[in-house]
Design a protein that fits this description.
Elements (H helix, E strand, L loop, with lengths): L1 H5 L4 E2 H8 L4 H13 L3 E6 L5 E6 L1 H4 L2 H13 L1 H16 L2
């Protein structure tokens, strides 16, 4: 979700957190650090008061946007079939 959010352009931490929703500050921080370590995201600190930090996709990170769009399209196309399969599985587990 972070890659998708940053595909719109650089964002600040709280803007990412609001856009993604349901993610804790700690998990977002850890995920951004991991993506930065992997070379997919850059972190730019501006010397202002208070400090401003922007996150952006690197050129390698930008190459993920198209595969993620295709995966998202697939998930939306098959969402009802997946939910049906989940319901069937859950019902079978309850009957054991």
């Amino acid at each position: 979700m972070i890659i998708g959010a940053l595909s719109r352009g650089p964002m600040r931490f709280n803007a990412l957190r609001r856009l993604i929703g349901g993610v804790s500050q700690r998990m977002l921080t850890l995920t951004l650090r991991g993506l930065e370590r992997d070379g997919l995201v850059t972190r730019t600190v501006y010397p202002t008061i208070p400090p401003r930090v922007d996150y952006a996709l690197t050129p390698i990170g930008q190459t993920l946007t198209e595969p993620l769009r295709v995966l998202s399209d697939w998930a939306m196309a098959y969402q009802s079939a997946i939910e049906t399969a989940q319901d069937a599985y859950d019902s079978a587990q309850e009957n054991l």
